[in-house]
Write a structure and sequence with these properties.
single chain; alpha+beta; Tetrahydropterin Synthase, Chain A; 3 domains; 3-stranded antiparallel beta sheet; 23% strand; elongated
Length: 281
């Protein structure tokens, strides 16, 4: 009988190492199988469930431990999301209106558990789109078709305020809202264009009329001033003034005379009028 204590000890150690390795391997497999942790990414929140019951605690970004089998964590996206919706509605003057809008929104992060509990992950289809449709129809019905165009900023603001109030009740915040386009029937569009053309023509005609009136007033003012000047001149005319003007004319003629009498004589000759009178004076 071979009694080798050292050999038996080595066998025991080898068996122990194998058993430990097997245990470690089993633990590793169980660890990855049950995965007792969860990683929450950027722009996400974790909704904790204990056997399906939603808990009050909302997990922030990072790694968190959970109880296997007992707890599950649902990831909720709380980043800003965009929804584009088309809707057909009517204006207050019963014109058909096709609207296209864009909405930016996000789930309120610390209310992600309530959103999941009351709405689920399909909140866009269940809440966002129907709310946009209803608000667009309700607001557009308070404006005429023309006002929807001319008061577009006011219409957009009213729609955004209505959506903000409506979605906040579902723990969804509105970040931005914009009207992409309004579309009307071709008949109404042609009528609007015709009206704008008529208004532009009327404005041009009014400006032309104002210009003509100003020019006429200027002409009348100039004629009045000229008539007044003539009247004042007529009032100042006297025999002495006439005689003075004749003398001044003769003096100017003398200044220009070169001292040579004209050689042309006869019936067609032009006399040197008033020279003698001017010299006597």
């Amino acid at each position: 009988m071979d009694n080798n204590p050292m050999g038996e000890l080595k066998n025991v150690l080898k068996k122990g190492q194998k058993r430990n390795l097997i245990i470690i391997a089993i633990l590793v497999v169980l660890l990855f199988a049950f995965k007792p942790w969860v990683q929450i990414g950027a722009g996400e929140r974790g909704v904790v469930q204990n056997f399906g019951a939603v808990q009050d605690k909302v997990l922030n970004e990072g790694i968190h431990f959970k109880i296997p089998i007992v707890q599950t964590v649902i990831l909720m996206d709380v980043k800003i999301q965009k929804a584009m919706t088309d809707a057909a509605s009517s204006s207050s003057d019963l014109q058909d209106v096709d609207l296209s809008v864009a909405l930016n929104y996000h789930i309120i992060p610390d209310k992600a558990n309530l959103v999941y509990q009351t709405i689920g992950v399909e909140f866009k289809e269940r809440i966002i789109d129907p709310a946009i449709q209803e608000v667009m129809k309700a607001v557009s019905a308070r404006y005429t078709a023309e006002e929807l165009i001319t008061k577009r900023p006011a219409v957009s603001t009213e729609m955004q305020q209505a959506l903000t109030s409506r979605l906040l009740a579902s723990n969804i915040a509105v970040d931005a809202f914009s009207i992409i386009s309004f579309s009307f029937s071709q008949t109404f569009t042609d009528a609007i264009e015709a009206k704008q053309t008529a208004e532009q023509n009327a404005l041009k005609a009014k400006r032309d009329l104002d210009r003509i009136k100003v020019e006429a007033e200027q002409t009348i003012a100039a004629a009045t001033a000229e008539a007044e000047a003539l009247r004042l001149q007529k009032m100042n005319i006297s025999p002495d003034l006439i005689e003075l003007r004749k003398i001044e004319a003769n003096l100017k003629a003398i200044e220009k005379w070169n001292g040579i009498l004209p050689e042309v004589t006869g019936a067609g000759a032009i006399p040197f009028i008033g020279v003698g009178d001017a010299i006597k004076n």
